[in-house]
Amino acid sequence: MDAQKQVAAAGFKNALTIGLANDYLGYIVNEKEYPHGGYEVDERSYYGPGLGRLLAAKAGEAARKLSAPTR
Q1: 3 near 15, Cβ under 8 Å?
Q2: How far apart are CA 37 and CA 15, in angstroms?
């Protein structure tokens, strides 16, 4: 699941993914595209093919915590 699906599964109707590139010198390449290589993978993807999945899971985790009832 991508980040938007993870957040929607937590009960949020609208999810908007926003990225900031000015302070990051690289790309987050999804697992499907990683084997194809190219500039984004070969020169500027430092964390491997699982980073996108990890970030999406963390977004979902944060959304579930936000939507959980407080005690």
Answers
A1: yes
A2: 29
Domain count, the chain: 1
Amino acid at 67: S
pLDDT in tens, 26-41: 788 888 888 999 988 8
CA dist 14 and 20 (Å) reads 20
Q: What is the pTM of this model?
A: 0.73
Indicate the pLDDT class of residue 47, thresholds 50, 70 and 90. Answer: confident
The amino acid at 11: G
Cα–Cα distances (Å) from 71 to 10, 12, 51, 68, in that order, read: 18, 20, 33, 9
Residue 36 belongs to domain spanning: 3-67
